[in-house]
């Protein structure tokens, strides 16, 4: 049986919020006349949302079409900035990926813009750990759709999604895959589910096997 582990990005693999805020604020100051400042807290508050939702949340003073245009410009600048500067990896991430990849194919699904996952993979040279990636920016589909897409495209018979916020759990349920809560991330889950306090716990003896051995959500 082919089993796979699918990862969320923000709050699960890394925290890029500080550098994302820097790049977005630079665009807003230049192109929106300094109408507002974009802070790290602003970015953290919207991580996990689709880019359209982020446009509505961060730029409610604009018509949606204009807010989306500004968000797209911010996203392009963000990708370039992260390719040069990266973010903050959670401790022991590469060792964890290296160990997990020996037993399971690994994937990434995020609600981010096109190019964001690639910036992460390029900066840290992690591309060889992951067999496939998908995101909202590629097809404008939500996380549940893209989790299910990864499962179908890679012919997985069983899969688990590792994420940190309630929306990640809800998307996993909708996609019909298992879920592990990255409790060190940005959010809480309002139901019982397997969880980890550090990413390294994914490699604890028998942990992943027990998750796959439990009834699916």
Task: Describe what this molecule looks like in 3D.
- It is built from 10 helices and 8 strands.
- The protein is of the alpha/beta class.
- Helix 1 (about 15-30) packs across helix 2 and helix 8 (about 145-155) packs across helix 9.
- The longest helix is centred in the middle third of the chain and has 22 residues, at about 65-85.
- The mean pLDDT is about 95.
Assign the structural class, choosing from mainly alpha, mainly beta, alpha/beta, alpha+beta, or little secondary structure.
alpha/beta
- Low-pLDDT ranges: none
What coarse outline follows from CA principal-axis ratios?
globular
Taken in chain order, the helices and strands follow as EEHHHHEHEHEHHEHEEH
Helix content: 40-55%
Distance between the termini: 18 Å
Tally of alpha and pi helices: 10
Mean pLDDT across residues: 94
Reported for the largest beta sheet, the result is: 6 strands, parallel
Q: Which radius of gyration do the C-alpha atoms yield?
A: 17 Å
How many strands? 8
Strand content: 5-15%
């Amino acid at each position: 049986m082919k089993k796979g582990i699918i990862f969320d990005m923000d709050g699960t693999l890394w925290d890029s919020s500080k550098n994302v805020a820097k790049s977005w604020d630079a665009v807003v100051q230049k192109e929106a006349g300094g109408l507002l400042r974009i802070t790290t807290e602003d970015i953290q508050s919207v991580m996990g949302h689709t880019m359209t939702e982020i446009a509505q949340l961060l730029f409610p003073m604009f018509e949606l079409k204009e807010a989306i245009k500004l968000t797209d410009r911010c996203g392009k600048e963000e990708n370039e900035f992260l390719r040069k500067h990266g973010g903050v990896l959670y401790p022991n991430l590469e060792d964890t990926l290296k160990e997990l990849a020996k037993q399971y194919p690994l994937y990434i699904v995020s609600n981010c813009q096109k190019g964001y996952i690639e910036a992460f993979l390029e900066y840290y040279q992690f591309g060889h750990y992951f067999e496939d990636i998908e995101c909202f920016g590629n097809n404008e589909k939500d996380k549940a759709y893209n989790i299910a897409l990864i499962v179908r495209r890679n012919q997985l018979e069983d899969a688990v999604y590792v994420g940190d916020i309630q929306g990640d759990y809800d998307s996993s349920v909708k996609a019909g895959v298992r879920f592990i809560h990255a409790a060190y991330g940005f959010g809480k889950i309002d139901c019982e589910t397997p969880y980890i306090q550090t990413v390294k716990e994914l490699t604890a003896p028998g942990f992943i096997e027990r998750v796959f051995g439990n009834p699916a959500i």
